[in-house]
Amino acid sequence: MTASKTEFRRKLDRALDSDKLRVALHRALPALGLRRADRMREVDWPALRADLTARKKHAVDDIPALIARFTKEAEAVGAKVYRAVDAEEARRVVTAICRAKRAKLVVKSKSMATEEIDLNEHLAANGITAVETDLGEWIIQLAGERPSHLIAPAIHKTREEIAVLFAKVVGHPVSDDTASLVAVARDELRASFLKADVGITGGNILIADTGTLVLVTNEGNADLATSLPAVHIAVVGVEKVVPSLDDAAAVLKLLARSATGQKISTYTQFITGPSRSADIELKTQIGVHGPKELHFVLIDNGRTAMRAATSVPPTRWSAGTCSATSTPARSDSWCRRSITASTASRTSSRCVSAATRATRCARWASRSRRSSPTFARSLSSAPVSRGPNASRCRSGPRRSASIA
Hints:
By secondary structure, the chain is of the alpha/beta class. It has helices spanning 3-16, 19-41, 45-61, 63-76, 87-100, 112-116, 119-125, 135-143, 159-170, 178-195, 221-225, 245-260, 303-308, 332-337, 341-351, 354-371, 373-381, and strands at residues 80-84, 105-108, 129-132, 198-201, 205-207, 212-217, 231-237, 241-242, 267-271, 276-277, 285-286, 293-299, 390-394.
């Protein structure tokens, strides 16, 4: 057995034996599964999914031309576009932009693309502090861990564990009710937003026709990260490009329903170039209340090679979630480090024999049934699915589902 498989099995056993992990997942997963099922029943889900699959297949087939068009349109409205062939080049480009601006503090919204390239570690090595502002990502950053889920990075943490983490930050005991924990995060992160030199985001969609970035979020942190700092850097995989606003709408019809069980997310931003105004003699001035600069770092990192593999379905290219890109190509080191307690059991089907898997799943299910029959059933029954300068669509108050 290889060392990596031995380490994986050790982590898997530890996860299956964790009472805290069972409590955290029991609090979170059943409700999420029910919400997603309800939202999917409200629409013709198979038809919408088939439509988006066809659109994404067309986009993947035409990706070089779409990237060229996106680059032309984005630069026409004042943005700068960089192509990064691999993770190293992407890190180098982002760091060079930050250094050029003498940045010491950057704020980040949730981005699996930046996780893919180990950006935070690289920035820290170059004297630049990166603060995660998504609630779940901030929790994980404080804990010194990796995200365990695309849309709920801290799904494996209980609110009691989070209260202990936050108490270390504020220097006094913190109540473990969700509202109190969110209040701590709001107060602590506000200063970072105001002091940050650069805001870094991922991207859910790139629209080739207009050079537009689309961000889908719930908490409001991405709006602050893309408005308050003078420089906005978007790190996005090339697979996120679609031809038109109509194609972007097709993505949005499914994204929130599938990801979080919402009809639509609280915030949907359409960002086209840096901020601007023509209120003085109708002469356009870049950089008003929002960023003066917008930079796109478009990551390949193996995606073009995946495109050449005709057996890869387009849905593998389009599994984006709220401000996080589902990455088709990740470095081996990222994959190894990202196997946290809560993801170990989900990944086991790829790494252990069928007999071992069956034994461990039975052990997990038995414990889950004892603690909650509803939770155990949910594991097997939850559904599975594969213009203006800055437009924001907002639905309801800010919210987060990062605390179990």
